[in-house]
Specification:
Layout lengths: L1 E5 L7 H12 L4 E6 L12 H13 L5 H18 L6 H12 L4 H20 L2 E2 L7 E2 L7 H13 L5 E4 L2 E4 L4 E3 L5 H12 L3 E6 L20 E3 H9 L10 H5 L5 E5 L8 E4 L1 H5 L12 E14 L9 H11 L4 E3 L6 E7 L3 H15 L3 E14 L9 H11 L6 E4 L5 E7 L3 H14 L3
Parallel strand pairs: 1-2, 1-8, 2-5, 3-5, 4-6, 8-10, 9-11
Antiparallel strand pairs: 6-7, 10-11, 12-14, 12-15, 13-14, 15-17, 16-17
Bound molecules: aspartic acid (ASP).
The site of aspartic acid has 12 residues, from loops.
Length: about 450
Protein backbone atom coordinates (compact mmCIF):
# COMPACT_ATOMS: atom_id res chain seq x y z
CA UNK A 1 0.00 0.00 0.00
CA UNK A 2 1.21 3.49 -0.83
CA UNK A 3 1.01 7.01 0.57
CA UNK A 4 0.88 9.73 -2.07
CA UNK A 5 1.61 13.32 -1.18
CA UNK A 6 0.75 16.07 -3.64
CA UNK A 7 2.45 19.46 -3.41
CA UNK A 8 1.11 22.98 -3.98
CA UNK A 9 1.47 23.02 -7.76
CA UNK A 10 -0.40 19.73 -8.01
CA UNK A 11 -3.24 21.29 -5.98
CA UNK A 12 -3.15 24.70 -7.70
CA UNK A 13 -6.17 24.50 -10.04
CA UNK A 14 -8.89 22.24 -11.40
CA UNK A 15 -6.68 20.84 -14.17
CA UNK A 16 -3.97 19.80 -11.75
CA UNK A 17 -6.54 18.21 -9.44
CA UNK A 18 -7.78 16.17 -12.39
CA UNK A 19 -4.22 14.97 -12.93
CA UNK A 20 -4.05 14.03 -9.28
CA UNK A 21 -7.28 12.09 -9.50
CA UNK A 22 -6.03 10.22 -12.60
CA UNK A 23 -2.81 9.31 -10.80
CA UNK A 24 -4.67 8.05 -7.76
CA UNK A 25 -7.29 6.20 -9.82
CA UNK A 26 -4.63 4.46 -11.92
CA UNK A 27 -2.90 3.01 -8.88
CA UNK A 28 -4.67 0.26 -6.98
CA UNK A 29 -2.19 0.63 -4.11
CA UNK A 30 -2.97 4.34 -3.55
CA UNK A 31 -4.92 4.48 -0.28
CA UNK A 32 -3.67 7.49 1.61
CA UNK A 33 -3.33 10.91 0.07
CA UNK A 34 -1.70 13.89 1.77
CA UNK A 35 -2.17 17.32 0.22
CA UNK A 36 -0.64 20.79 0.33
CA UNK A 37 -2.58 24.02 -0.03
CA UNK A 38 -3.02 25.33 -3.58
CA UNK A 39 0.27 26.82 -4.72
CA UNK A 40 1.13 29.13 -7.58
CA UNK A 41 -0.76 28.62 -10.84
CA UNK A 42 1.92 30.50 -12.75
CA UNK A 43 4.92 32.69 -12.04
CA UNK A 44 3.86 35.79 -10.13
CA UNK A 45 0.83 34.11 -8.56
CA UNK A 46 0.48 33.92 -4.74
CA UNK A 47 0.28 30.67 -2.80
CA UNK A 48 -2.86 30.20 -0.71
CA UNK A 49 -0.63 29.76 2.37
CA UNK A 50 0.88 33.20 1.76
CA UNK A 51 -2.59 34.71 1.36
CA UNK A 52 -3.51 33.20 4.72
CA UNK A 53 -0.41 34.58 6.42
CA UNK A 54 -1.43 37.89 4.92
CA UNK A 55 -4.95 37.56 6.42
CA UNK A 56 -3.43 36.92 9.84
CA UNK A 57 -1.01 39.87 9.66
CA UNK A 58 -3.65 42.26 8.33
CA UNK A 59 -6.05 41.30 11.11
CA UNK A 60 -3.26 41.68 13.66
CA UNK A 61 -2.50 45.16 12.39
CA UNK A 62 -6.18 46.02 12.82
CA UNK A 63 -6.80 46.08 9.06
CA UNK A 64 -9.48 44.52 6.92
CA UNK A 65 -8.40 40.94 6.22
CA UNK A 66 -11.57 40.16 4.27
CA UNK A 67 -10.01 41.20 0.98
CA UNK A 68 -7.16 38.71 1.25
CA UNK A 69 -9.56 36.09 2.54
CA UNK A 70 -11.87 36.64 -0.44
CA UNK A 71 -8.91 35.63 -2.65
CA UNK A 72 -8.54 32.41 -0.67
CA UNK A 73 -12.26 31.70 -1.07
CA UNK A 74 -12.07 32.35 -4.79
CA UNK A 75 -9.13 29.98 -5.25
CA UNK A 76 -11.18 27.15 -3.76
CA UNK A 77 -14.56 27.98 -5.29
CA UNK A 78 -12.94 28.20 -8.75
CA UNK A 79 -11.58 24.68 -8.28
CA UNK A 80 -14.78 23.21 -6.87
CA UNK A 81 -16.95 24.83 -9.56
CA UNK A 82 -14.71 23.72 -12.41
CA UNK A 83 -14.62 20.15 -11.12
CA UNK A 84 -18.33 20.04 -10.34
CA UNK A 85 -17.34 18.73 -6.97
CA UNK A 86 -20.13 18.00 -4.52
CA UNK A 87 -19.01 19.99 -1.50
CA UNK A 88 -20.29 23.21 0.03
CA UNK A 89 -17.36 25.22 1.29
CA UNK A 90 -19.39 28.19 2.57
CA UNK A 91 -19.72 26.96 6.19
CA UNK A 92 -15.97 26.30 6.31
CA UNK A 93 -15.14 29.76 4.94
CA UNK A 94 -17.46 31.33 7.49
CA UNK A 95 -15.90 29.47 10.38
CA UNK A 96 -12.32 30.30 9.32
CA UNK A 97 -13.08 34.00 8.80
CA UNK A 98 -14.82 34.06 12.17
CA UNK A 99 -11.80 32.44 13.85
CA UNK A 100 -9.26 34.75 12.25
CA UNK A 101 -11.39 37.73 13.14
CA UNK A 102 -11.55 36.43 16.70
CA UNK A 103 -7.75 36.46 16.98
CA UNK A 104 -6.84 32.88 16.01
CA UNK A 105 -3.11 32.14 15.88
CA UNK A 106 -0.83 32.56 12.88
CA UNK A 107 -0.37 28.79 12.61
CA UNK A 108 -4.12 28.27 12.62
CA UNK A 109 -4.59 30.78 9.79
CA UNK A 110 -1.73 29.32 7.75
CA UNK A 111 -2.98 25.75 8.17
CA UNK A 112 -6.40 26.41 6.65
CA UNK A 113 -5.09 26.10 3.08
CA UNK A 114 -4.20 22.44 3.62
CA UNK A 115 -7.41 21.88 5.58
CA UNK A 116 -9.65 23.12 2.76
CA UNK A 117 -7.51 21.47 0.12
CA UNK A 118 -7.98 18.08 1.78
CA UNK A 119 -11.74 18.59 2.17
CA UNK A 120 -12.02 19.30 -1.56
CA UNK A 121 -9.75 16.41 -2.56
CA UNK A 122 -11.57 13.94 -0.31
CA UNK A 123 -14.92 14.92 -1.87
CA UNK A 124 -13.47 14.69 -5.37
CA UNK A 125 -11.92 11.24 -4.83
CA UNK A 126 -14.76 9.89 -2.70
CA UNK A 127 -12.26 9.29 0.13
CA UNK A 128 -12.64 10.01 3.84
CA UNK A 129 -11.31 13.34 5.16
CA UNK A 130 -9.13 12.89 8.23
CA UNK A 131 -8.16 16.10 10.01
CA UNK A 132 -4.41 16.26 10.74
CA UNK A 133 -5.15 17.84 14.12
CA UNK A 134 -6.50 14.50 15.32
CA UNK A 135 -3.41 12.50 14.41
CA UNK A 136 -0.35 14.79 14.28
CA UNK A 137 0.62 15.90 17.79
CA UNK A 138 3.02 18.43 19.25
CA UNK A 139 3.86 19.01 22.87
CA UNK A 140 2.99 22.35 24.43
CA UNK A 141 6.48 23.72 23.69
CA UNK A 142 5.85 23.06 20.03
CA UNK A 143 8.12 20.00 19.71
CA UNK A 144 6.76 17.31 17.42
CA UNK A 145 5.63 14.24 19.37
CA UNK A 146 6.69 11.51 16.95
CA UNK A 147 5.66 8.44 18.90
CA UNK A 148 2.19 9.60 19.97
CA UNK A 149 1.59 10.78 16.40
CA UNK A 150 2.62 7.42 15.03
CA UNK A 151 0.32 5.56 17.38
CA UNK A 152 -2.68 7.80 16.74
CA UNK A 153 -2.18 7.92 12.99
CA UNK A 154 -1.90 4.14 12.78
CA UNK A 155 -5.00 3.70 14.95
CA UNK A 156 -7.19 6.23 13.09
CA UNK A 157 -6.13 5.23 9.58
CA UNK A 158 -6.62 1.53 10.25
CA UNK A 159 -10.35 2.22 10.46
CA UNK A 160 -10.56 4.00 7.11
CA UNK A 161 -12.46 2.14 4.40
CA UNK A 162 -11.67 2.94 0.78
CA UNK A 163 -9.06 5.60 1.31
CA UNK A 164 -8.33 8.83 3.16
CA UNK A 165 -7.15 12.34 2.38
CA UNK A 166 -5.14 14.09 5.08
CA UNK A 167 -4.09 17.75 5.07
CA UNK A 168 -0.34 18.24 5.32
CA UNK A 169 1.68 20.87 7.19
CA UNK A 170 -0.04 21.00 10.57
CA UNK A 171 -1.16 19.18 13.68
CA UNK A 172 -2.27 20.11 17.17
CA UNK A 173 -0.55 20.61 20.52
CA UNK A 174 -1.61 18.62 23.57
CA UNK A 175 -3.26 21.85 24.74
CA UNK A 176 -5.44 22.00 21.61
CA UNK A 177 -3.65 24.71 19.60
CA UNK A 178 -3.05 24.26 15.87
CA UNK A 179 0.67 24.10 15.12
CA UNK A 180 2.40 23.96 11.73
CA UNK A 181 5.71 22.48 10.69
CA UNK A 182 8.09 24.87 8.96
CA UNK A 183 7.28 25.92 5.39
CA UNK A 184 6.98 23.01 2.98
CA UNK A 185 6.06 20.78 5.92
CA UNK A 186 3.40 18.74 4.11
CA UNK A 187 6.29 16.55 2.99
CA UNK A 188 6.83 15.70 6.65
CA UNK A 189 3.14 14.82 7.11
CA UNK A 190 3.35 12.47 4.12
CA UNK A 191 6.31 10.72 5.71
CA UNK A 192 4.50 10.47 9.07
CA UNK A 193 1.51 8.82 7.42
CA UNK A 194 3.76 6.47 5.41
CA UNK A 195 5.46 5.29 8.59
CA UNK A 196 2.23 4.87 10.53
CA UNK A 197 0.48 2.76 7.91
CA UNK A 198 3.64 0.81 7.02
CA UNK A 199 3.52 1.92 3.38
CA UNK A 200 5.57 0.03 0.79
CA UNK A 201 6.58 3.39 -0.66
CA UNK A 202 6.02 7.09 0.07
CA UNK A 203 5.38 8.80 -3.25
CA UNK A 204 5.99 12.52 -3.17
CA UNK A 205 4.36 14.10 -6.23
CA UNK A 206 5.69 17.50 -7.19
CA UNK A 207 6.31 19.63 -10.29
CA UNK A 208 9.82 18.48 -11.18
CA UNK A 209 11.16 15.14 -12.43
CA UNK A 210 13.08 14.49 -9.22
CA UNK A 211 16.32 15.55 -7.61
CA UNK A 212 18.78 16.98 -10.08
CA UNK A 213 22.52 16.45 -9.89
CA UNK A 214 22.77 20.18 -9.27
CA UNK A 215 20.68 23.36 -9.22
CA UNK A 216 18.94 23.76 -12.62
CA UNK A 217 19.04 27.53 -12.19
CA UNK A 218 22.82 27.31 -12.48
CA UNK A 219 23.35 24.43 -14.91
CA UNK A 220 20.89 23.94 -17.75
CA UNK A 221 19.12 20.58 -17.71
CA UNK A 222 21.21 18.71 -15.18
CA UNK A 223 20.72 14.97 -14.98
CA UNK A 224 17.92 13.68 -12.75
CA UNK A 225 19.29 11.47 -9.98
CA UNK A 226 17.68 8.03 -10.29
CA UNK A 227 18.51 6.90 -6.77
CA UNK A 228 19.66 8.60 -3.57
CA UNK A 229 20.27 7.18 -0.13
CA UNK A 230 18.65 8.80 2.91
CA UNK A 231 22.07 10.00 3.93
CA UNK A 232 22.82 11.62 0.58
CA UNK A 233 19.37 13.17 0.58
CA UNK A 234 19.89 14.67 4.02
CA UNK A 235 23.18 16.15 2.92
CA UNK A 236 21.87 17.54 -0.36
CA UNK A 237 18.63 18.91 1.02
CA UNK A 238 20.35 20.48 4.00
CA UNK A 239 22.66 22.20 1.57
CA UNK A 240 19.85 23.70 -0.43
CA UNK A 241 18.47 21.07 -2.84
CA UNK A 242 14.92 21.91 -1.91
CA UNK A 243 12.76 19.32 -3.64
CA UNK A 244 11.76 17.77 -0.30
CA UNK A 245 11.53 19.23 3.20
CA UNK A 246 14.84 18.30 4.88
CA UNK A 247 13.02 16.68 7.81
CA UNK A 248 10.85 14.40 5.74
CA UNK A 249 13.19 11.44 5.97
CA UNK A 250 13.06 11.10 9.76
CA UNK A 251 9.69 9.31 10.00
CA UNK A 252 10.25 6.94 7.05
CA UNK A 253 13.82 6.20 8.06
CA UNK A 254 12.52 4.46 11.15
CA UNK A 255 11.00 1.72 8.96
CA UNK A 256 13.29 1.94 5.90
CA UNK A 257 10.39 3.01 3.67
CA UNK A 258 11.62 4.30 0.31
CA UNK A 259 10.50 7.72 -0.92
CA UNK A 260 9.87 8.21 -4.59
CA UNK A 261 9.78 11.78 -5.91
CA UNK A 262 7.57 12.02 -9.00
CA UNK A 263 6.24 14.67 -11.35
CA UNK A 264 2.43 15.11 -11.41
CA UNK A 265 2.73 16.72 -14.83
CA UNK A 266 4.99 14.01 -16.27
CA UNK A 267 3.87 10.83 -14.53
CA UNK A 268 5.75 8.75 -17.10
CA UNK A 269 9.10 10.08 -15.79
CA UNK A 270 10.79 7.60 -13.43
CA UNK A 271 11.53 10.23 -10.74
CA UNK A 272 14.07 9.81 -7.96
CA UNK A 273 14.03 6.88 -5.53
CA UNK A 274 15.34 7.58 -2.04
CA UNK A 275 16.30 4.42 -0.23
CA UNK A 276 17.63 3.32 3.15
CA UNK A 277 21.39 3.83 3.30
CA UNK A 278 22.05 0.40 4.85
CA UNK A 279 20.04 -1.36 2.16
CA UNK A 280 21.95 0.45 -0.54
CA UNK A 281 25.32 -0.29 1.03
CA UNK A 282 24.42 -3.97 1.42
CA UNK A 283 23.59 -4.19 -2.28
CA UNK A 284 19.83 -4.56 -1.94
CA UNK A 285 19.40 -1.56 -4.22
CA UNK A 286 21.68 -0.82 -7.15
CA UNK A 287 22.07 2.18 -9.41
CA UNK A 288 24.24 3.36 -12.29
CA UNK A 289 27.79 3.62 -10.96
CA UNK A 290 29.01 7.18 -10.54
CA UNK A 291 31.60 8.85 -8.37
CA UNK A 292 29.33 11.55 -7.07
CA UNK A 293 25.57 11.64 -6.69
CA UNK A 294 24.92 15.33 -6.47
CA UNK A 295 26.23 18.82 -5.79
CA UNK A 296 24.41 21.41 -3.68
CA UNK A 297 25.35 24.57 -1.92
CA UNK A 298 24.35 27.71 -0.08
CA UNK A 299 25.63 31.26 -0.03
CA UNK A 300 26.14 33.79 2.70
CA UNK A 301 28.26 32.23 5.42
CA UNK A 302 30.73 33.93 7.70
CA UNK A 303 34.03 32.53 8.95
CA UNK A 304 35.88 33.67 12.04
CA UNK A 305 39.51 32.69 12.00
CA UNK A 306 41.31 32.57 15.37
CA UNK A 307 45.01 32.20 16.03
CA UNK A 308 46.66 31.69 19.38
CA UNK A 309 50.06 30.36 20.29
CA UNK A 310 49.92 27.00 22.06
CA UNK A 311 46.21 26.67 21.31
CA UNK A 312 46.83 22.95 20.98
CA UNK A 313 47.62 22.76 24.70
CA UNK A 314 44.77 24.92 25.89
CA UNK A 315 41.95 22.75 27.12
CA UNK A 316 38.48 24.18 26.46
CA UNK A 317 39.42 26.68 23.74
CA UNK A 318 36.97 25.18 21.24
CA UNK A 319 34.26 25.01 23.88
CA UNK A 320 34.67 28.69 24.70
CA UNK A 321 34.42 29.60 21.01
CA UNK A 322 31.24 27.58 20.61
CA UNK A 323 29.75 28.95 23.85
CA UNK A 324 29.94 32.43 22.37
CA UNK A 325 27.98 31.28 19.33
CA UNK A 326 25.52 29.41 21.50
CA UNK A 327 24.78 32.56 23.52
CA UNK A 328 23.66 34.14 20.25
CA UNK A 329 21.67 31.06 19.29
CA UNK A 330 23.87 30.42 16.28
CA UNK A 331 24.75 26.89 15.30
CA UNK A 332 28.08 26.39 13.58
CA UNK A 333 28.45 24.61 10.25
CA UNK A 334 32.13 23.71 10.24
CA UNK A 335 35.12 24.11 12.48
CA UNK A 336 38.39 23.24 10.73
CA UNK A 337 41.44 23.55 12.96
CA UNK A 338 45.24 23.56 12.82
CA UNK A 339 47.77 23.36 15.65
CA UNK A 340 47.40 26.98 16.74
CA UNK A 341 44.47 28.01 14.57
CA UNK A 342 40.77 27.39 14.53
CA UNK A 343 38.11 28.62 12.12
CA UNK A 344 34.44 28.53 12.81
CA UNK A 345 31.93 28.92 10.00
CA UNK A 346 28.30 29.86 10.50
CA UNK A 347 25.39 31.36 8.61
CA UNK A 348 25.84 35.13 8.33
CA UNK A 349 24.29 37.06 11.21
CA UNK A 350 23.44 40.77 11.35
CA UNK A 351 26.21 43.36 11.60
CA UNK A 352 25.55 44.06 15.26
CA UNK A 353 25.40 40.38 16.29
CA UNK A 354 28.61 39.68 14.35
CA UNK A 355 30.35 42.52 16.17
CA UNK A 356 29.16 41.26 19.52
CA UNK A 357 30.43 37.77 18.68
CA UNK A 358 33.87 39.13 17.79
CA UNK A 359 34.02 41.12 20.98
CA UNK A 360 33.03 38.18 23.13
CA UNK A 361 35.54 35.91 21.38
CA UNK A 362 38.27 38.47 22.14
CA UNK A 363 37.27 38.55 25.79
CA UNK A 364 36.57 34.85 26.37
CA UNK A 365 39.26 33.26 24.20
CA UNK A 366 42.02 35.90 24.17
CA UNK A 367 43.28 35.03 20.67
CA UNK A 368 46.52 36.56 19.30
CA UNK A 369 44.74 37.31 16.07
CA UNK A 370 41.14 37.24 14.93
CA UNK A 371 39.95 37.65 11.37
CA UNK A 372 36.46 37.86 9.96
CA UNK A 373 35.70 36.58 6.45
CA UNK A 374 32.26 37.30 5.05
CA UNK A 375 30.38 36.25 1.93
CA UNK A 376 31.43 32.64 1.77
CA UNK A 377 29.48 29.89 0.05
CA UNK A 378 29.52 26.26 1.11
CA UNK A 379 29.30 23.61 -1.57
CA UNK A 380 28.73 19.93 -0.81
CA UNK A 381 29.88 17.28 -3.25
CA UNK A 382 27.99 14.19 -2.15
CA UNK A 383 28.01 10.50 -3.04
CA UNK A 384 28.79 7.08 -1.63
CA UNK A 385 30.79 6.42 -4.82
CA UNK A 386 33.58 8.71 -3.59
CA UNK A 387 34.61 6.29 -0.91
CA UNK A 388 36.06 3.71 -3.21
CA UNK A 389 37.15 5.99 -6.02
CA UNK A 390 40.70 7.27 -6.13
CA UNK A 391 41.30 10.78 -7.34
CA UNK A 392 37.96 12.32 -6.36
CA UNK A 393 39.53 15.11 -4.32
CA UNK A 394 42.01 15.72 -7.12
CA UNK A 395 39.15 16.12 -9.58
CA UNK A 396 37.31 18.54 -7.30
CA UNK A 397 40.41 20.71 -6.95
CA UNK A 398 41.32 20.39 -10.60
CA UNK A 399 37.83 21.37 -11.72
CA UNK A 400 37.82 24.42 -9.49
CA UNK A 401 41.39 25.33 -10.42
CA UNK A 402 40.56 25.22 -14.14
CA UNK A 403 37.59 27.52 -13.51
CA UNK A 404 39.82 29.97 -11.61
CA UNK A 405 37.97 29.43 -8.30
CA UNK A 406 39.89 29.92 -5.08
CA UNK A 407 39.05 27.36 -2.37
CA UNK A 408 38.78 28.92 1.09
CA UNK A 409 38.12 25.79 3.13
CA UNK A 410 37.91 22.03 2.65
CA UNK A 411 36.17 19.57 4.92
CA UNK A 412 35.80 15.90 4.10
CA UNK A 413 33.17 14.19 6.22
CA UNK A 414 34.59 11.31 8.21
CA UNK A 415 32.27 8.85 6.50
CA UNK A 416 33.73 9.88 3.13
CA UNK A 417 30.51 10.45 1.30
CA UNK A 418 30.76 14.21 1.22
CA UNK A 419 33.34 16.88 0.65
CA UNK A 420 32.44 20.41 1.64
CA UNK A 421 34.25 23.31 0.06
CA UNK A 422 33.98 26.98 0.93
CA UNK A 423 34.41 29.50 -1.88
CA UNK A 424 33.64 33.20 -2.14
CA UNK A 425 30.02 34.02 -2.91
CA UNK A 426 31.12 35.68 -6.14
CA UNK A 427 32.57 32.34 -7.31
CA UNK A 428 29.60 30.22 -6.26
CA UNK A 429 27.82 29.68 -9.58
CA UNK A 430 31.09 29.26 -11.42
CA UNK A 431 32.22 26.63 -8.91
CA UNK A 432 28.99 24.63 -9.24
CA UNK A 433 29.26 24.68 -13.03
CA UNK A 434 32.90 23.60 -12.86
CA UNK A 435 32.15 20.69 -10.53
CA UNK A 436 29.20 19.58 -12.62
CA UNK A 437 31.34 19.65 -15.77
CA UNK A 438 34.13 17.74 -14.06
CA UNK A 439 31.96 14.90 -12.76
CA UNK A 440 28.93 14.74 -15.03
CA UNK A 441 30.27 15.62 -18.40
CA UNK A 442 33.48 13.63 -18.01
CA UNK A 443 32.19 10.69 -15.98
CA UNK A 444 33.77 7.55 -17.34
N1 LIG B 1 1.50 25.13 2.18
C1 LIG B 1 2.66 25.12 3.02
C2 LIG B 1 3.73 26.02 2.41
O1 LIG B 1 3.48 26.71 1.44
C3 LIG B 1 3.16 23.77 3.31
C4 LIG B 1 3.42 22.87 2.13
O2 LIG B 1 3.01 23.13 1.02
O3 LIG B 1 4.08 21.86 2.32
O4 LIG B 1 4.82 26.09 2.93
Amino acid sequence: MKVLKFGGTSMANADSLRQVRDIVAADSLARFVVVSAPGKRAAGDTKVTDLLYDCYRTRRAGGDFEKAFARVEKRFTDIVDALGCDVDLQPYFKQIAYDIDGGASEDYAASRGEYLSAIVMAAYLGYTFIDAKDIVKFDDDGAFDAELTNELTARVLRRVGKGAVIPGFYGQTHGGMIKTFSRGGSDVTGAIVARAVGASVYENWTDVDGFMTCDPRIVENPRVIEMLTYRELRELSYMGANVLHPESIFPVRKSDIPIRVRNTFRPEAPGTMIVATNKFLSGEYTRRASTITGIAGKKNFTAVHLEKQMMNNECGFGRRVLSVLERHNISFEHMPSGIDTLTVIFEAASESVTNEILEELRLDCRPDRIELVRNLSLIAVVGHGMRSKKGTAMRIFQGLYKAGVNIRMIDQGSSEYNVIIAVEDADYENAIRALYAEFEEHEE
